[in-house]
Design brief:
Layout: H1 21-31, E1 37-39, H2 48-54, E2 63-65, H3 71-83, E3 90-92, H4 101-109, E4 118-120, H5 128-137, E5 143-145, H6 162-175, E6 183-185, H7 194-203, E7 209-211, E8 225-227, E9 235-238, E10 244-248, H8 263-266, H9 272-359, H10 362-427
Parallel strand pairs: 1-2, 2-3, 3-4, 4-5, 5-6, 6-7, 7-10
Antiparallel strand pairs: 8-9, 9-10
InterPro entries: LRR_dom_sf
């Protein structure tokens, strides 16, 4: 049997579930180490661990595609397998949520690090750190897919932002022509912006294709772009040293739609039924995003109303506190007037007592004693008024503090309401 018949395990979809470990080993042996492509998508019985058992039979494999459904148990074995595939040039880990920055770091240290030219990480838990590791330590990297499913924020994917794009631009500027990146996909990444894309386009000398679909903060009709001749689903844009770059955006499909013909296949969906399912899922996610937007708007309106009511109540409390404080001040003034009158009466009483002692008038003494008693009562009354005024001032201060707390709470509620709008504006239901 010619080994050229067995250079790939990429089987038709209906045959993939039937591939067993024994059948795979038989294919590997028949290929006589010429098995160049291993595709485990849709294969349920063969994992990376089984491939590793074949050892040297797969040493010339150049393409490895992991089955996302089995990835939880395949990824550890896949990492070990990468070290045993020194010729590996394409590694497809799309839609494996357990693939994170640590996995990327392991790939960079593997034997295939110097040969890997295509790394597909769409839908993985990779952040800016993982992207920067790949760009820095994979010198042959020509294709990098770090896209996300539209609305992937609902799935909690980690963020890839302009930090990655500016790092790519920096590496390109330092390496020049030896920076081989040709295809870059950031589709669905809601934190990528025009500034990052501009930097990449301006510095990457070999860049030929850039996918920015579903990026909320990237102009879908790129600056300096012209329609691509022939209607090939892209827009021309002049890149580094005049290098033409095809920018694929939501506005660049041949028929004017926002979904290119190969949309389903790029998301790992090949059959029409699967594409319909994916389209339905996308519509569902869009509906969820719309409901979420309406809920956030309603929450903001409710919060604004609550804040307005609280501010109005705080204003009433503040006014009442001011009124009480004013009454306390008036009462203190009255007490001061009484004490002033007490002083005058006390002087008169002292004079009457002295005169009564000199003249020995009993009636004058009695009158002086009566006036002295009135003075004492006036002093007690003034003291009571002062105490009451002090209590009123304390109450007014407490009410002012309460009003200040209510105002602060209202402002916090307004800030939270504003953050709801900012979060939705930044996320827009879009991907990470």
């Amino acid at each position: 049997m010619s080994p050229n018949l067995w250079t790939s395990t990429s089987l038709p979809k209906e045959l993939r579930p039937r591939l067993t470990p024994d059948a795979f080993e038989h294919i590997a042996r028949c290929s006589r180490r010429q098995l160049s492509e291993i595709d485990l998508r849709g294969v349920s019985h063969v994992s990376c661990a089984h491939i590793g058992l074949c050892g040297a039979l797969c040493e010339n494999t150049k393409s490895l595609r992991i089955n996302a459904e089995e990835q939880a148990k395949s990824i550890p074995a896949a990492l070990s397998l990468c070290s045993g595939l020194p010729m590996l040039s394409t590694l497809d880990l799309r839609w494996c949520p357990h693939v994170d920055d640590g996995v990327v770091a392991h790939i960079c240290r593997a034997n295939c690090g110097n040969t890997l030219s295509s790394l597909l990480l769409r839908g993985c838990q990779v952040s800016d750190e993982g992207v920067m590791l790949a760009v820095r330590y994979l010198p042959m990297l020509a294709t990098l897919d770090i896209g996300a499913w539209p609305f992937s924020r609902l799935h909690g994917l980690r963020s890839v932002s302009d930090v990655s794009l500016f790092f790519i631009a920096q590496c390109a500027a330092l390496r020049g022509k030896s920076f081989l990146l040709q295809n870059l996909c950031v589709a669905g990444r809601r934190l990528a912006t025009d500034e990052g894309i501009d930097a990449v386009v301006a510095t990457c000398p070999n860049l030929g294709r850039l996918d920015v679909r579903h990026c909320l903060h990237i102009a879908q009709t790129p600056r300096g772009a012209v329609a691509q001749p022939g209607g090939c689903g892209g827009i021309w844009r002049e890149g580094c040293e005049g290098q033409p770059v095809i920018v694929v955006s939501d506005q660049s499909t041949p028929d004017g739609s926002t979904t290119p013909p190969n949309y389903g296949e790029e998301f790992g969906i090949r059959e029409s039924s699967d594409l319909q399912t994916a389209t339905g899922l996308l519509q569902l996610l869009q509906s969820i995003a719309a409901v979420r937007a309406a809920a956030e708007l309603q929450a903001r309106a409710t919060a604004e109303a609550q804040a307005a009511d609280m501010l109005a109540e705080a204003a009433e409390v503040q006014a009442r506190a001011s009124e009480i404080n004013s009454q306390a001040i008036d009462m203190q003034s009255q007490a001061a007037e009484i004490l002033s009158r007490v002083s005058d009466v006390q002087v008169q009483v002292s004079a009457m007592q002295a005169q009564a002692e000199e003249q020995g008038h009993v009636e004058a003494r009695a009158q002086a004693a009566e006036m002295q008693a009135q003075v004492a009562q006036m002093q007690v009354h003034a003291a009571q008024m002062q105490v009451h005024a002090a209590q009123m001032q304390i109450r007014a201060t407490e009410m002012q503090g309460q009003a200040a707390e209510m105002q602060s709470s209202a402002l916090n509620i307004r800030a939270q309401a504003a953050s709801l709008s900012l979060e939705y504006a930044a996320g827009g239901g879009g991907g990470g």
